[in-house]
UniProtKB/TrEMBL annotation:
Keywords: ATP-binding, Coiled coil, Kinase, Membrane, Nucleotide-binding, Phosphoprotein, Transferase, Transmembrane, Transmembrane helix, Two-component regulatory system. Its EC number is 2.7.13.3. This is histidine kinase. The keyword Transmembrane helix applies. Residues 248-313 form the Signal transduction histidine kinase subgroup 3 dimerisation and phosphoacceptor domain. It is an enzyme of class 2 (transferase). InterPro entries: HATPase_C_sf, HATPase_dom, Sensor_HK_TwoCompSys, Sig_transdc_His_kin_sub3_dim/P. It comes from the Bacteria. Residues 1-11 have a biased composition (Basic and acidic residues).
Length: 478
């Protein structure tokens, strides 16, 4: 009796441990798929870079300041075409035995696009590169008497290297890498068809193109970095000037807070004391004065809140009274101690100077004297403060510097914002400021501010005729 063969069940595998095939096959397949996908993306990116030129912009060296430098790429391209075209035609027809008409067509295709490379180098490459390949194929069917180099002729190598320079100065690195790979791949592919008796120079061209593309791309990257740095410096300078202006305005607002607070305090005191100073006031007037005092106190509280915002940097407020024209003499004396001979002419009949104008006039003199010490050490300086037809005129003129440098004493140092602060203060009071070098080399600061309401800066001129010698040190004070 025949017995049926027994089918033993397969040996069970340990759970969680894959078979040898799954352990070797699945990761390898996934790795190959990943490498293939990345390679496909790379080649797709290179093909896109080769077919998408950079946006046509200005020609090479178009940002040069000299007109002759801007014309240099055109002159160089025209010289290359004029020299390489007849040389290529003569070489193809004489040494390689190519038909004259065909040699002329190939030579024109290989050299004429060099003029296009000044503006659109990638488009020129798409003409010259196929023309070089076509020329190499034509040389296969020719057997000239003195032919010895293949697949590239010497004139085509010179023109192709010039094209690489234009590409490196304009196109992206991915495009340059694609051009370099295409050049090498075409040269080594042509090596398989090299006829006997010809010397191959594709390796030389491959190395030359790589070196030229690397150097020119580095030069372009350096130029781009310098241009971006100049733009950033310009932006930073504009931001710095704007920040300085805002800081100066905030500082002026903090100083004027004391002036305004004094007037508001006087209003509050007068309104509160009116019923006691004038007993016969009617009840309605008493209520009105009470309301005025309450409004003044509320305004003072709001001003303190505003001042806390302006002092958001945590700085403490100044406890000393704000200076005025009565302290200009001290500024001049401190300037003299700093080594600057200074003279002050302060009119005795200035009249009633508003506190804001008084403070602004002091700060203007302070900044002007500080600029003299910084930029024109040792220069003779004259300060004049007088009232002319309802206007306070402040004039500071200094002579040429006589010392290479000088230290600034604390009493004569300014706020550090110079002309910016002067302009803001004068504008705040409704006046005008005139600064600038004088014909004899000096520098002048002339400010006029109204001594009362209703003054129009356009209707009054400032008298600046004084016997002064003034300096300039080659740059405008801060």
């Amino acid at each position: 009796m025949a017995t049926e063969p027994r089918h033993e069940p397969p040996s069970p595998r340990r759970p969680g441990k894959p078979s040898r095939i799954s352990r070797l096959g699945t990761p390898t397949r996934a790795t190959l798929q990943g490498l293939g996908a990345r390679a496909g993306e790379t080649f797709q990116g290179l093909a896109s870079a080769l077919t998408t030129p950079s946006a046509p912009g200005a020609p090479l060296l178009s940002d040069a300041s000299s007109r002759w430098v801007r014309l240099l790429p055109y002159v160089f391209g025209l010289a290359l075409v004029a020299s390489l075209l007849p040389t290529t035609v003569h070489l193809l027809s004489g040494d390689y035995g190519v038909n004259g008409a065909l040699a002329g067509a190939i030579g024109t295709a290989q050299t004429a696009p060099l003029l296009l490379a000044v503006v659109r180098p990638l488009q020129a490459w798409w003409i010259i590169f196929p023309a070089n390949l076509l020329g190499a194929l034509v040389l296969l069917t020719s057997d000239g008497p003195r032919a010895h180099l293949w697949p590239w002729t010497p004139p085509s190598v010179v023109g192709y290297c010039a094209l690489m320079i234009a590409l490196g100065l304009r196109e992206s690195r991915r495009t340059l890498f694609g051009v370099w790979l295409a050049t090498g791949a075409a040269g080594y592919a042509m090596e398989a068809f090299r006829p006997d008796g010809y010397s191959s120079i594709h390796t030389l061209l491959f190395v030359l193109t790589g070196v030229l593309l690397l150097l020119t791309s580095a030069v372009r990257a350096r130029g781009d970095a310098q241009r971006l740095l100049r733009e950033q410096e310009t932006i930073s300078e504009a931001e710095r000037a704007h920040r300085t202006l805002l800081e100066e305005r905030a500082r002026i607002a903090r100083e004027l807070h004391d002036v305004v607070a004094h007037h508001m305090s006087m209003i509050t005191v007068q309104a509160d004391s009116a019923p006691y100073r004038i007993p016969e006031l009617p009840e309605a007037a008493r209520e009105e004065f009470t309301s005025i005092a309450a409004s003044a106190r509320e305004s003072l509280a709001e001003m303190r809140r505003l001042l806390s915002v302006l002092r958001s940097d945590g700085s403490e407020g100044e406890r000393a009274p704000q200076p005025g024209l009565d302290r200009v003499q001290q500024l001049v004396e401190a300037t003299v101690r700093a080594g600057v001979p200074a003279e002050l002419r302060l009119a005795a009949d200035l009249g009633d100077v508003p506190q804001a104008v008084d403070l602004s006039a002091y700060r203007i003199v302070q900044e002007a004297l500080a600029n003299v010490v910084r930029h024109a050490p040792g220069a003779s300086t004259r300060v004049s403060v007088r009232a002319v037809e309802g206007w306070l005129t402040v004039l500071v003129v200094n002579g040429p510097a006589t010392e290479p440098g000088s230290s600034v004493e604390r009493g004569a140092s300014g706020t550090g914002h110079g002309l910016v602060g002067m302009r803001e203060r004068v504008r705040l009071t409704g006046g005008s400021l005139d600064t600038g070098p004088l014909p004899d080399g000096g520098f002048r600061v002339a400010a006029r501010m109204p001594l009362g309401p209703g003054q129009d800066p356009a209707t009054t001129t400032v008298t600046t005729a004084t016997s002064t010698k003034i300096p300039t040190t080659g740059k405008e004070p801060e």
